[in-house]
Amino acid sequence: MCGDRTTTASPTMDPGFVDHVLNKSPEVVRVYLPPDANTLLSVADHALHSRDYVNVIVAGKQPCFDWLSMDQAKAHCARGAGIWDWAGTENGGEPDVVLACAGDVPTQEVLAAAQLLRRHLPQLAVRVVNVVDMTRLLPREEHPHGMSDFEYDGLFTTDKPVIFAYHGYPWLIHRLAYRRTGHANLHVRGYKESGTTTTPFDMVVRNDLDRYRLVMDVIDRVPGLAVRAAAVRQEMADARTRHHAWIREHGTDLPEVADWAWNA
């Protein structure tokens, strides 16, 4: 706790900690999940210059990529949630599916899933949305940082599947967004009390938050893909099976995971 205003939490803490904080007065609490080092610097600077707030910043300990430049990070944090055009395949049109994420590890898995979809289903229009300020998901009437329905519907759509990867318990996202028009289309992957001392990627596989599971979710939920992309889904399921065998034999992640990097 710094100056009675800011606390930094590791994702290995109680995954329900954010749920607990967001039960408090909306006039006081703020919760940030920066996806990389530059967004972490931006939200930390904002929090340490604020007064009379409880600012919670959730950050991991594992090495991660820097997805945004410092200027891009500042702009993204000011928005609180936004579309990462460079990661999606909308090309100015309407998306077929939205891949959303909050947290550093979920962001990496969503970007890896987006890359797999780009490779295997290039005709699919994918929108990638990152949420750094969790209170943006609330209605404006419920929190000063909340989005209006107009903003939320524009970002997440009203009728397209939304696959949301979140570092904590998945029902928090449902709780924050239950009044939104497209809530019935929202499918959240998050922590489900499955884990042990293992690799970071094995942890996400154990909780069905991995890139292969996210691709399978897209195929399961986008109308018409179940038949057209059956072979792709099978390949993703096989990758998860291969992961389970590999980690038990080698104790490390698959080379395709360990050596992965964003490459559009």
Automatic annotation (TrEMBL):
Domain Xylulose 5-phosphate/Fructose 6-phosphate phosphoketolase C-terminal: from-to ranges: 61-262
Note the InterPro entries from the entry: Transketo_C/PFOR_II, Xul5P/Fru6P_PKetolase, Xul5P/Fru6P_PKetolase_C
Instruction: Report any one BP term from Gene Ontology.
Output: carbohydrate metabolic process
Q: Which domain of life is it from?
A: Bacteria
Q: Name one Pfam family in it.
A: XFP
| UniProt keywords, alphabetically | Lyase
Instruction: List where this protein forms a coiled coil.
Output: none
Say if the entry is tagged with keyword Lyase: yes
Q: Does the keyword Lipid metabolism apply?
A: no
Family annotation (SUPFAM superfamilies): TK C-terminal domain-like
From the UniProt record, which GO molecular function terms apply? Answer: aldehyde-lyase activity
Q: Where are the transmembrane segments?
A: none
State the family it belongs to: Belongs to the XFP family.
Protein name per the record? D-xylulose 5-phosphate/D-fructose 6-phosphate phosphoketolase
